[in-house]
Model the fold of this input.
Amino acid sequence: MSVERIDKIIASQGTLSRNEVKKLIRANLVRVNGQAVKKSDEKYETSDIIIEIDGVLQTFKKNIYIMLNKPQGVICASRDPKAKTAVDLVPKELQRKGLFPAGRLDADTTGFVLITDDGDFAHRILSPKNRVKKTYKATLAQPLSSADIKRIEDGIKLADGTRCLDAQVKVIEQNEKVVAQIKICEGKYHQVKRMFAAVGNNVVELKRTAIGNVELDPNLLSGECRELTKEELESIENTN
Ligand code: URA
Done:
């Protein structure tokens, strides 16, 4: 349960500034749960709130969950003085305060980044103990042997001695290119690259294709975003 000022609740949705909301309230154009709002500092419970602005019903979302198809060169951060960030790619209509990428991809890794303003949710999908798998497609410099696969799947020791949790590896192409799919449920620094390096291989290209059982939308072009559907959000934490 959370109780907030009405101007803050409306502005949190990203389309109106706090000052714009205040003006609308002064002009008597805002109704909450059927009643006219008289002052900007009136407080309301955010869970079941019904907001109308100038007679138009607003859809209020406490939090937002965005799928980004990250291009190369973009960093997984909210803001950066020099580089373009994942949050910079969120279109204006989905922007709101407090957005951050739930987990990091390297600047040269592409694919699914989940951007949200829900810290508890991010923690749940990132915590290795919840076993939400992250799926990657890795283009490798060398062929992958069954012995390499077994070592990675059993929980490989990285060059610095760090032991990884178990993983699932499948070769999906081994002709002109060597491409493997790998599923891991933790997110150590450069983890996939270091796991393949530990069997003497080298990742030449890396793309995250799924988080949990939610696949990167094939209709999202590189750099594009969309909100997760209700069904995707409900199923992302399922580990079956
Ligand atoms: N593992 C890596 O090595 N890099 C990433 O960007 C993600 C996982």
Observations:
- The CA atoms of residues 132 and 166 lie 13 Å apart.
- The pocket of uracil is lined by residues 105-106, 109, 190-193, 206 (CB under 6 Å).
- The mean pLDDT is 95.
- The longest strand covers residues 203-211.
